[in-house]
Write a structure and sequence with these properties.
Jelly Rolls
């Protein structure tokens, strides 16, 4: 088993695979930096193809497989970064 850090840089040869977590991968972002990727996800009839510069957010838990097609590919896999709360979102105390 390989544990990937957030936004891990991955180089795949043609036909190389990355298997993402089966339980908690919803929200994971796959970014294709170079080459082309094919993504398949359990219980989803769609096939996702990413070209360099495109990304895909995994929509639900379940096994997700990413494969390099048409040659080598470079990708990152990571979780989205939560936007910092703005001052208007935080509770304020009224001056007495």
């Amino acid at each position: 088993m390989v544990c990937l850090s957030n936004n891990a840089l991955i180089h795949l040869h043609r036909g190389g695979l990355v298997r993402l977590g089966e339980r908690d991968d919803a929200g994971t972002i796959v970014n294709c930096l170079d080459g082309a990727l094919w993504i398949t996800h359990d219980n989803d009839r769609r096939d996702i193809v990413l070209m360099a510069g495109e990304s895909y957010a995994v929509e639900s838990p379940g096994l997700t497989v990413v494969c390099a097609i048409a040659g080598p590919a470079v990708l990152t896999v990571g979780n989205p970064v939560a936007a910092p709360a703005s001052l208007s979102d935080s509770p304020r105390r009224k001056a007495a």
